[in-house]
Design goal:
It contains eleven helices and no strands. The protein is an all-alpha fold.
């Protein structure tokens, strides 16, 4: 039989374990959002300045997959070379400033989280940066060289390639940023599960639709129609989805909620 006094202590502890969420008006939310955006813009600008100093190395890194097959970029507009320098500095600055920008994002959403949920700040930041860099690296070292070899040396071997700065930079960013963002799937599931929008059971029950979506994405980004190559691109994303199910089980409110039976 449960001691009423002990049950009351447990119930009170369960309530006090969670930080009381502060009430904020709409204007206070907007003011907080403005503050975080301004801080993020400052960090991005500082990162861009640092990246601008090393822009030549960044540009070499950007076009290295093309240089490996003996091709170089050409430009058709006087502004193209300057735009490439600016894009390289902006992309490098965003990567440099990403930890600080992510911390601003966390500061904005933290007032709406319970005390137990706020302990995820450092795992959240580390996992977000790691997954993005993993996706971008996968795109840079595997997807981009494979696409260039197949598209230029394969389908285009009977023609003279003239790869412009504008076209290549757009293609480069779509691959690198697209895969970097797609590798953030566990982080998206993390927040959806934390707020109770999805559950591990829901994710597992609908895994067949997730597999279909993953293979559709792989078919789009895969440079070869070969099904084996497409599977190579799909497997990391399927692994991330399975990781997301584990993350959902870890942070879902149903698992962290204190048992009401002990109180009754």
């Amino acid at each position: 039989m449960v001691d009423p006094a002990e049950a009351m202590v447990k119930a009170r502890k369960a309530v006090t374990d969670r930080a009381e969420l502060p009430g904020m008006s709409l204007m206070e939310h907007l003011d907080e959002l403005r503050r975080r955006i301004v801080h993020s813009a400052i960090y991005l600008a500082l990162g861009g300045v640092v990246a601008w100093i090393f822009r030549k190395k960044l540009i070499f890194f950007l076009q290295a997959p093309l240089l490996k097959i003996g091709k170089s970029l050409v430009f058709t507009h006087p502004m193209d070379a300057l735009n490439l320098n600016l894009q390289a500095a902006l992309l490098g600055g965003a990567i440099i400033a990403s930890p600080f920008i992510l911390y601003q994002v966390w500061l904005f959403i933290a007032p709406g989280l319970y005390q137990r949920e706020k302990r995820f700040v450092w795992p959240f930041m580390a996992a977000t940066i790691f997954l993005f860099l993993a996706g971008a690296s996968f795109g840079y070292f595997f997807v981009l060289p494979g696409a260039i070899n197949i598209l230029i040396l394969g389908f285009g071997h009977d023609f003279t390639p003239m790869v412009t700065i504008e076209d290549y930079s757009g293609f480069f960013l779509s691959v690198i940023l697209g895969l970097g963002i797609s590798f953030e799937l566990p982080i998206l599931i993390f927040f959806l599960a934390m707020f109770g929008i999805v559950s591990p059971r829901f994710l597992w029950k609908n895994i067949r639709y997730a597999i279909l979506a993953v293979f559709l994405v792989a078919a789009v980004i895969c440079p070869s129609p070969d099904p084996w190559t497409m599977c190579i691109y799909a497997l990391p994303m399927l692994g991330l989805y399975m990781l997301g199910i584990g993350v959902a089980w870890w942070v879902h409110p149903a698992r962290r909620k204190p048992k009401e039976a002990a109180v009754s």
